[in-house]
Design a protein that fits this description.
The complex is a heterodimer of chains A (about 170) and B (about 750). Chain A has about 170 residues and is an alpha+beta fold. Helices cover about 20% and strands about 45% of the residues of chain A. Chain A has an 11-stranded antiparallel sheet. The two termini of chain A are about 25 Å apart. By secondary structure, chain B is an alpha+beta fold. In chain B, about 65% of the residues lie in helices and about 10% in strands. The two termini of chain B are about 40 Å apart. Classes of the chains: A alpha+beta (about 170), B alpha+beta (about 750). At the A-B interface, strand 2, strand 5 and strand 6 of A face helix 8, helix 9 and helix 10 of B.
């Protein structure tokens, strides 16, 4: 099955044209919430490697994610808010960058990829450190079926989870 | 050599020895402006802002940058003059965020209005919305677990641009290191040496290393001034030596010329050491230049051999005492550096004249000199013309001061290397020098933090908010932290209110235990002090601006985005703080010195000329009025020429003019028309020797790269020419002498 998952993931990645824009729908699940918080937008990687997340719902917000910092600009505010990328979000950012650029090379170099079966499809877990479980904050799992990417899941603090569905072109 | 001469030389050598053993030089602003220095902002290098620095490593490969940055950090951290240095962070790291989360109720205490079910429901709704934003990513679920909004307010306060240590720009191909010098005296040479070692680290083909910060800038400026002064002094002394060697033709003669000046300089510094404890570098520079006048004394003696010598000694004494009276007036200026200059010159010239009086140059010494007596020229209605010249020159000076005519004096230019570094820091990292500072004084730390918070609130309430790094923004006084506890309900009451809030906001009731647990933990955190902030590396820069003074505590914080200076000053003033415009203070520095010196020099000049005229009248001799008039006209003409050509006069030009006045008195008493033909000729010869010597020494400085040295030299050389031309202008009877 791992070999099948690897092949399926590579097939899915091969469908992505580098630089193309990927529409996404994000759901934030948390024990405090009776229903998930939802956001929608578009993702892409710019020529210099910056990952851009342009959110259109629930409010317009543009997040540019570089190698060490991310800047957030919303509405008419001309001054972007600049913050370092929290360590807990790095795997997710790197996974999104890989998806938007259509290349797993960067991920394979920096992370341990753990492939497995999930229902009728496959699952790839991106674990920053050896021994880390798939449910620890920061751990990223990518679910798919055949050459279809279905869901990106990120474990967050307090038993929360982010679920991101990406629509490939 | 006579016994008398040997004793004079020995006295000179002894004075020099004692002066060198006791000499202590200071260069701080306190020594220049005394108690006024803090108000004017001239003690900047000692403040937290003055000690702060930035280092930008840019270009080259990432590996080369990392290597150079690591080496530079190691060098900086090993230097005892450096308090701390670290790569800049634009936001706290995870460990710091954990610390802030634990202490949020101390740093941003929730009030009673934040703890109502309605307020908490609103806060929970906002926290839910933020989950899909980047901030929500970064904060995890902490906004959800803090319905009081304390953590959100704290992060918002910490994300103010002013609190990021300057420069909020993300850097590409560059690493920014920020740090601070330790709280100690500024050592220009050591700071420059450190800068040179840092710049050499990347190697010629490595990344570029740029340095910024007031201490690095001051050190670079000091080094350049020192280099230029050394070159100018070397060239001046070299030319002077060559000229004297040619004119005097013997080493013994040179010794006779130098000994009174050396003795005078030594006596001047000794007098300051006794009266003030240490010699300020400004007094040393000005005093040494003015005491150069004493070089003339032995030359006058050499030019008056035989029976003329006794008269020359008397005239030297008259000139020295008259000039000493003029400069002693500076003791009343109230500006320590000027008072020291006055004492230096008065003591130095009188001592030099005494030593010169004891020295008996051999009659065999016949200096080669220009026959100046041939240059007396006839000026009809001399007194009227001189008076008119003086009046016209003073009018021109007034017109220049009013900005009606004349050039604007060239702005001071930073040395090329540091200017390029500062430009690079501005362009690449958005780091600018802090023009505006907020200064807060209070008798104790609690009062200071309260005023700091009030000042922060006043700035934030301005129509165009001003960026600032005031500690009061994030750290309430300890009493306020403890006092805020009274608004916090007990755990049961909080649970009841929170349960209502959860329901109102549409949250899961099962989340209540997480909320109450987080609330109880925040309540238990101990009060936060500046020391506990300093212990957190990311937060330590917030406390940099806090320091102790003789009267209590002071906070100095840089401001950014000040568009309305008057409004900002008024807002700070209302909060008990002061706005300091460092540019205006720096611009005001030299005019402040000049304006303090001018009236006292004027009083001194009046007293000196009063003494001169009284002395001459007591001896039934005339000429005092002529000397006064010629000196006044030549000085005014020199000042006006300098002002029209180069712009309004500063303190350096005023001191150079004071030297011109001294020269005028000196030349005047020797060229006085009240003597016989031979006496006039001897006087003219000695004045020619002195004028050439002074002119030669200062001519070399005219071309100095340092605008101040060049300006002083131009003023003195112009003054000598004007003084000679007007002193040699005479009436018909004197012209007959020449023929």
């Amino acid at each position: 099955m791992p070999a099948t998952a690897t092949a399926a993931l590579e097939q899915a990645m091969a469908r992505i044209v580098p630089g193309s824009r990927l529409a996404y729908r994000e759901e934030v699940h948390h024990p405090a919430l009776l229903s998930p918080e939802v956001a929608e937008g578009v993702l892409w990687v710019e020529g210099d490697g910056t990952l851009v997340r342009a959110q259109s719902w629930p409010r317009a917000e543009r997040t540019a994610i570089g190698t060490r910092f991310l800047s957030v600009q919303r509405g008419e505010d001309p001054v972007p808010n600049l913050v370092p990328i929290p360590a807990v979000l790095r795997p997710m950012v790197e996974m999104l960058r890989a998806l938007a650029s259509g290349s797993l090379a960067g991920l394979r170099a920096a992370y341990r990829l753990k492939f497995g079966a999930e229902g009728g499809g496959w699952r790839v877990a991106l674990l920053p450190e050896d021994g880390m479980s798939e449910t620890e904050p920061g751990a990223v799992r990518l679910f798919g079926c055949g050459a279809e990417l279905q869901l990106l899941s990120v474990a967050t603090g307090g038993d929360g989870e982010r679920r991101l569905r990406v629509v490939l072109p | 050599m006579t016994l008398r001469s040997a004793a004079a030389l020995l006295a000179s050598a002894l004075l020099l020895g004692v002066a060198l053993l006791t000499l202590e030089i200071r260069s701080d602003a306190q020594g220049v402006f005394g108690a006024e220095s803090a108000r004017l902002g001239f003690d900047a290098l000692g403040t937290a802002e003055g000690r702060r620095f930035a280092m930008l490593v840019s270009g080259g490969t990432e590996e080369a940058r990392a290597t150079a940055t690591a080496a530079a950090l190691a060098l900086l951290r090993a230097d005892p003059a450096i308090s701390h240095a670290a790569p800049r962070r634009l936001a706290p790291k995870a460990e710091t965020l954990d610390w802030l989360w634990r202490h949020r109720f101390r740093l941003a205490p929730p009030g009673a209005s934040d703890l109502t079910p309605e307020a908490m429901a609103d806060q929970l709704t906002a926290a839910r919305r933020s989950l899909t934003s980047a901030e929500g990513f970064a904060a995890g679920d902490r906004f959800l677990r803090d319905p009081t909004g304390s953590y959100a307010r704290l992060l918002a306060a910490l994300s103010r641009p002013g609190l990021r240590g300057g420069g909020s720009r993300a850097l590409k191909n560059a690493t920014l290191v920020v740090g601070s010098f330790a709280d100690g005296p500024f050592d220009a040479a050591a700071t420059n040496a450190l800068a040179e070692r840092l710049r050499a680290l990347p190697g010629p083909s490595g990344p570029r290393l740029a340095l910024g910060g007031q201490r690095f800038v001051s050190a670079a400026v000091s080094a350049e001034i020192e280099r230029n002064a050394l070159v100018a002094a070397g060239a001046g002394f070299g030319l002077l030596f060559l000229w004297l060697a040619w004119a005097l033709r013997s080493a013994v003669s040179l010794l006779f010329v130098v000994a009174p000046v050396v003795g005078g300089l030594a006596a001047g510094t000794l007098a300051i050491t006794l009266a003030f404890g240490a010699v300020h570098v400004i007094a040393l520079g000005f005093g040494a230049a003015l005491c150069g006048l004493a070089l003339d004394y032995p030359m006058h003696l050499m030019a008056h051999p035989g029976a003329d010598r006794a008269r020359a000694q008397g005239l030297i004494g008259l000139g020295a005492v008259t000039t000493a009276i003029a400069f002693a007036s500076l003791l009343g200026s109230g500006i320590p550096a000027l008072a020291q200059t006055g004492l230096f010159v008065a003591t130095g010239l009188v001592t030099a004249a005494l030593i010169a009086a004891f020295l008996v140059p051999p009659d065999a010494i016949r200096p080669r000199i220009l026959a100046l007596d041939r240059l007396f020229w006839r000026l009809p209605a001399r007194r009227g013309v001189l008076a008119a010249t003086a009046v016209a020159a003073v009018g021109a000076l007034a017109a220049v001061e009013a900005g009606w005519i004349g050039a604007q004096r060239q702005a001071f230019a930073l040395p090329a290397q540091i200017a390029a570094d500062l430009e690079h820091l501005r362009e690449t990292a958005g780091i600018r020098d802090a023009r505006y500072l907020a200064v807060i004084d209070a008798p104790d730390r609690e009062a200071l933090l309260a005023k700091s918070a009030a000042a922060a609130a006043a700035l934030e309430a301005l129509p165009e908010p001003v960026g600032h790094a005031l500690l009061g923004t994030v750290l309430p006084p300890e009493a306020a932290q403890i006092g805020a506890e009274s608004a916090w309900p007990d755990a049961d009451r909080f649970a009841a209110e929170a349960e209502t809030a959860l329901a109102a906001a549409g949250f899961a009731p099962g989340f209540l235990p997480a909320l109450t647990e987080a609330f109880a933990a925040a309540r238990r955190a101990p009060p936060v002090t500046p020391e506990s902030l300093r212990a957190e590396a990311d937060l330590a820069p917030l406390v940099d601006g806090l320091g102790e003074t003789a009267a209590g505590y002071r906070e100095t914080a840089r401001l950014s985005g000040v568009s309305d200076r008057a409004r900002t000053a008024a807002a700070l003033d209302a909060a008990g703080a002061t706005l300091l415009d460092t540019h205006a203070a720096a611009k005001a520095a030299l005019p402040t010195l000049r304006n303090a010196a001018l009236p006292w020099l004027g009083i001194g000049a009046l007293a000196a000329f009063g003494f001169l005229i009284a002395w001459l009248r007591a001896r039934r001799r005339r000429g005092g009025g002529d000397i006064l008039l010629a000196t006044l006209a030549a000085t005014a003409l020199t000042a006006a020429t300098q002002a029209v050509l180069w712009g309004p006069l500063g303190i350096f030009e005023v001191v150079a003019l004071a030297l011109v006045v001294g020269i005028g008195i000196d030349y005047g008493v020797f060229l006085s028309t009240d003597h016989d033909v031979e006496a006039r000729r001897s006087g003219a010869r000695s004045v020619a020797l002195c004028a050439t010597s002074t002119g030669v020494a200062f001519a070399a400085m005219v071309v100095s790269a340092d605008p101040v040295l060049s300006s002083i030299a131009t003023t003195v050389v112009t003054g000598i020419i004007a003084m000679l031309a007007l002193s040699l202008a005479t009436d018909a009877r004197a012209v007959q002498v020449r023929s």
